[in-house]
Amino acid sequence: MSVATFILFAVLGTKFARILVQRASKSAVSVALRKTSETSKLKREAEQLKQELASVNARDEFAQYARIQRKLSKATEGLKTSASNDQKFALKSTLIIKALIVICSVLLHIAVVRSVWTEVVVTVPEGWLYPVAPLVAFPTGKPGEFNIEHLLQLIL
Predict the structure, then answer these.
(1) Is residue 135 a contact partner of residue 100, using CB atoms and an 8 Å limit?
(2) C-beta atoms surrounding 68 within 10 Å
(3) Which of 45, 56, 106, 133 would be 129's cystine partner, CB 3.0–4.6 Å?
């Protein structure tokens, strides 16, 4: 196996791994955010209070109706706060996971580029790259030769 083939598989492998890890992180966050005991308790309490509120006559028992309504609004506020906290947690965790993925990918690419800086990956006829041939041949100096840096720029 040539160095070029290994590098190509390494670059494509990291891209594939990035996609897999991002999907896995999304599913892990969704599992972590499944109904917590606090959220389910608040939902149960809100449902019970709604049923109580429906059974109480507002005109005859106004004090009890107002008390139940205050409890219901407090439970609803708790649910909103819990949902907001869950959204913040999901955003922070996915952001951290994505940042770690990008950092690892960048470090791997830097390591690959440094290890095979002057290694020729692809050679094409000189006429194909006529206007930009000297720019493309930077590390080796031979027109028509691509090194790993240019291959990574084409792939990424």
Answers:
(1) no
(2) 20
(3) 133
Place of tokens 């950092």: 103
Residues in the chain where the model's pLDDT stays below 70 = 1-8, 11, 33-37, 116-118, 120-121, 135-141, 146-156
pTM across the whole model: 0.56
Contact between 120 and 140 (Cβ < 8 Å): yes
pLDDT at 92: 85
Q: How far apart are CA 35 and CA 96, in angstroms?
A: 22
Q: Residue 12 in contact with residue 20, Cβ under 8 Å?
A: no
Looking at residue 140, its pLDDT comes to: 67
Q: Which of 76, 79, 6 is nearest to 36 (CA)?
A: 79
Amino acid at 150: H
Written in H, E and C, the secondary structure of 95-148 is HHHHHHHHHHHHHHHHHHHHHCCCCEEEECCHHHHHHHHHHHCCCCCCCCEEEH
Round to whole Å and give the CA distance between 88 and 3: 44
